[in-house]
Amino acid sequence: MRAVVVVTSATCPVCGTLCDDIELVVRGNTIEQVRKACAIGEAKFLNCQKDRLKAPLIRKNGELVETSWDQALQRSAEILANASYPVLYGWSSTSCEAIRKGLELAEEVGGVIDNTSTVCHGPSILSIQEIGISSCTLGQLRHRADLVIYWGCDPWSAHPRHMERYTAFSEGRFRGSNWRRYVKQFYARQLAKRVRRTASLGPKSIIPALAVEGSHLPFFTAQGARKMMVVDARRTRTADAADYFLEVKPNTDYEIMQALRMLIKGEDPDVEEVAGIPVEELEEVADVMIGCELGVLFFGVGLTMSLGKPRNIDAALSLVRDLNRRTKFLIMPMRGHFNVTGANVVFTWQTGYPYAVDFSQGYPRYNPGETSAVDILSRGESDAALVIASDPVSNFPRAAVENLVHNPLVVIDPLETPTSLMADVVLPSTFVGIETEGTAYRMDYVPLPLKKVLEPVSSALPDEEILQRLLDRVRSLRSGVDQ
Amino acid sequence: MSKVKVTLLTGRTITQGVGKELGKLSEEYLGSVAICEMDPEDLRLLSVRENENVRVATEFGSVVLRARESQRAPHPGVAYIPYGLWANVIIGPRTHGTGMPSFKGVPAEIEPAQREKTVGMREMLRTLYGK
């Protein structure tokens, strides 16, 4: 019987919430039980040793076959050293230490290095650089925020413990949790549904009278309680948990936020409705925003991925700036991957720019739209790629993927993914935060340590070590010296 | 044949999140992403029932997906596909100079495709990229 160890305060390497209170029951070298994590975190910890790559792979006669580390690294180094404009993409699901090595490698090979924020909160970064941001740490919000707005994001699905740890369902020093109220509302809604279903069996005339659902302003909540508002194109599960849900048509967020800005400044929009929403309703929303003591607006990729992109974020940041003339308001992007914030931090610290950095001129250049991964790939400009801890074959538009798969491709990943299946060389890596320690940045720019809780599977090496070995080989190839 | 015009949204779902951690080549992942969540009213217009196949087309391509009645309804005229290979083959590469393609708010058309089959990950990759 092997000893059972309970690891406490482990950090979950899944989303930008970076929960650091996870408990893992480890027997021998296997995680048996995961406590406090969400469904996604639990799935990652429990399945981390299944279906792992058994050795480095190399493409021979069209098939990926197992090979030695020596051959795989040599082939990868040749691909990168011989390319004139390689793209080095991914980085958001690995440690800051590995990202630093990646930047060194990008500079050495004169390539473009881009992280996944390019297809996530890249537009937010562009806008923050123009407008500025009034933000804070999540701890502040947990204790003090009395109005929480989620706009274009669904933490229930994408950041499952965000509400529990930091906002509506967390017990702060000065603000209580809404959990009990939510549970009561949930049962009330279930009951209402049952009543409606029963009523639908009777005469048709009574259905419209029972069809009223949803929450309405103004809020009737206890003094000091938090209020939660959701703005989205669909009634998400997060919206179900909210005190008020504003359903907007896709691609209309910009108009609605600009209308809210007018109302908050005391101006009259002089129209009956904005993007299908009556101005009276927006006035009530504006009143709630102004009436709070400390509000926070969390925004997601619902704003960055729809029409307007950075202009939507301009409106959101400006809305919060305007609100700060009337009350205290903060804003924060809901970052996706667990270390995408870290990728931006390390990129900026090393090159001056947070993503889409081009080293082809020998010095860092930054011009998203020109030097960003999707654009370079779609225009067919790159001639090789290194992908680490990411799956662009699944996540990029098809036109961009075509260039990626038809040029030499090196993939560093713990698992088989659609991208690794398309690769010419696959280098198996360890899971950062499970098999390798490191540092990651939470969405509010707080750095947290990632723990090593298991010994790595024998075939894998840490990202940082793989990149260092690659860098050494590229350097010796470029200097013409055999290793 | 009947068609409906919709605004396509792609995004995260909790089952997609769990599916990707179980492995991108797992059945769970396939079941969580090769779907199209539609409003019951739109399904009725197409005479398509839950779990029957539909073809979703944009100006960039088309893909066969399993239709699901949305748990988040009503949202007539809005269809939702979870992030993944299936969503992205019909997403365009234009970034409007920002680096970011439009993953949300894309005009699309949906038609019934009960006789067509959805394909697995490896077959899909082979068809699309020949590897």
What would you note in describing this structure?
The complex is a heterodimer of chains A (483) and B (131). Chain A is an alpha/beta fold and 483 residues long. Chain A folds into 2 domains: 53-118 and 338-478, Rossmann fold; 122-333, Dimethylsulfoxide Reductase, domain 2. Chain A contains 20 helices and 21 strands. A 9-stranded mixed β-sheet of chain A has the order 5-4-19-18-17-6-7-15-16, with helices on both faces. In chain A, strand 15 (357-358) and strand 16 (365-366) form a beta hairpin. In chain A, helix 3 runs parallel beside helix 20, helix 4 packs across helix 14 (310-323) and helix 11 (253-264) runs parallel beside helix 14. Chain A is globular, with a radius of gyration of 25 Å. Chain A starts with a strand and ends in a 5-residue tail after the last helix. In chain A, 54% of the residues are buried. Mean pLDDT of chain A is 93; it is low at 207-212. By secondary structure, chain B is an alpha/beta fold. Chain B has a single domain, classed as Barwin-like endoglucanases (Beta Barrel), CATH 2.40.40.20. In chain B, 27% of the residues lie in helices and 31% in strands. Chain B is built from 5 helices and 6 strands. Chain B has helices spanning 14-22, 27-33, 40-46, 85-88, 121-129, and strands at residues 4-11, 35-38, 53-58, 61-69, 78-82, 104-112. Chain B has a 6-stranded mixed β-sheet with strand order 2-4-3-6-1-5. In chain B, helix 1 (14-22) packs antiparallel against helix 2. Chain B is globular, with a radius of gyration of 14 Å. The interface between A and B is large, with 67 and 49 residues.
